[in-house]
Amino acid sequence: MKSASRAILAERLTAQGLSGPPLADPAAVAERLLAVQGQDPRGFRLAVRARTDGLTAADVERALAERELIVTWLNRGTLHLVRSEDYPLLQALTTPPLFTSSVRRLRQEGVSEAKAERAVETIERALGDEGPLTRIQLRERIEAAGVRTDGQAMIHLLFLTSLRGIAVRGPMVGKHHAYVLVRDWLGELRPIDREKALAELARRYLVGHQPASDRDLAKWAGLPLRDARAGLKAIGSELEEGEEGLVSLAKRPAPEKLPPPRLLGAFDPVLLGWTSREPILGPHTSLVTRNGIFHPFAMANGRALAKWGLAGGKVTLIPLQRLPVKIATALEHDAAEVTRFLVSD
């Protein structure tokens, strides 16, 4: 790797909270990264683990129960873990482009617009009357209202309800993530000034992903390139241009050394923040499958070098190249930390 590329990687891993002092708690991780991909429940918990010290999965559950964090569909139409106070910004900016595909998918699932409206009204009423409800409980109520939930219909009805800012995933109920009404859980949301919001989005994105380009921001947020450029232009006085034309906030922490060997979960944010994953994956592109699955992987010296899995409560490492003894030993120690962290999972 060229020295410039290694310098960029060191800066990004520092921004990501993988290098340097550990972050304080789950909310601090979500604040740093702004949005943590969340369709894999264990994956987003492990993203917290990799950036903190001494916590367990129960600390993530506690942050969800105490309304510090929520999970909902935002950037690119994907579930994300975010701080409750960051939800209005991301909801206002990243969900409008998703409505067209939502209507199309529901139609493909045999749900008309009228039936979809009935389902959304049913979800809103049920959550208002009964409080947090799981997907299984909401399915029962939607079917009782005469709307089909077969195939992918149920998930797309919940998707539409979330896009409209009606519901999000809040606390855990047993092993299931329950939905809540936004207005009950988070209060009434204030209107967002779009121009100011794009500037704040650009600023907050760079905090967790600098250095980066306008195309990196657009891909991460799922926004048109013109919006990414508008946001960056609005904070132009706060930026510095560096290697390869990438920009960073002028006021930022100095880059730390590359992080020690570490196990990262499925869909870790370090693979999802930029247009290219090559600096991390190198030749190991099999870690990301063609159907969009991001495998858990081990990283050392800023590069992916093994897959790993968890079966029977034991971490199994699958090297993708020869592992030096020192790195293999460090990963064994981190595997024990993964097991400890997931004790409440």
Structure description:
The protein is α+β, with helices and mostly antiparallel strands and 345 residues long. Helices cover 45% and strands 15% of the residues. It is built from 15 helices and eleven strands. A hairpin with a 5-residue loop joins strand 6 and strand 7. The longest helix has 18 residues. It is globular, with a radius of gyration of 20 Å. The two termini are 38 Å apart.
Lay out the secondary structure:
Blueprint: H1 3-15, H2 26-33, E1 36-37, H3 41-49, H4 57-65, E2 69-73, E3 79-83, H5 87-94, H6 99-108, H7 113-130, H8 135-144, H9 153-163, E4 167-173, E5 176-181, H10 182-185, H11 194-209, H12 214-221, H13 225-234, E6 239-241, E7 247-249, E8 262-264, H14 278-281, E9 297-300, E10 303-311, E11 314-319, H15 325-341
Antiparallel strand pairs: 1-3, 2-3, 4-5, 6-7, 8-9, 9-10, 10-11
Helix pairs in contact: 1-11, 5-11, 6-9, 7-9, 11-13, 12-13
